[in-house]
Amino acid sequence: MPSGRRSSKRPWAQDHPELDVDRVRGGRRTESAADGEWVVQSVTGAAGKAYTCPGCRQQIGPGTAHVVAWATDDLLGPEAGVAGRRHWHSSCWSHRDRRR
Question: Each residue of 12-35: pLDDT tens digit?
Fold first, then answer.
């Protein structure tokens, strides 16, 4: 038997909130650029490891938010693209076309 109480989290007349697609996908998105087709995933850096950014050749420290990117159009197939994934500073990834 219902208690008669209504949820105070979302009033009945209010619309449902907009779905945050990036959050649902875990921050994963696809990008198409002059250097190919990419899957790019935002990560929090919670793994506690340090990585070297291929954009600036500097360290991405443990706990630093960054992106992981891999090619979906690798000549050797999608498995090779995933195997070749790299950790990038978010700003280095977004400005990688300036390196050329």
Answer: 667 766 765 555 556 789 999 888
Rounded CA separation 38/1 (Å): 52
Q: Report the distance separating Cα 28 and Cα 22, nearest Å.
A: 6
Give the residue carrying structure tokens 């919670």: 46
* SS3 state at 84: coil
**Bridge-based pairing state of the strands 36-43 and 66-71:** antiparallel
Predicted local distance difference test score (pLDDT) of residue 22: 55
**What band does 90 get if pLDDT is binned at 50, 70 and 90?**
very high
Instruction: Please give the single-letter amino acid code of residue 83.
Output: A
46 part of a folded domain: yes
Domain coverage including residue 62: 26-99
Query: What domain count does the chain have?
Result: 1
| Helix runs in 1-100, H state only | 21-24, 78-83, 90-94
Query: In 3D, which of 21, 99, 29, 22 has the Cα closest to residue 70?
Result: 29
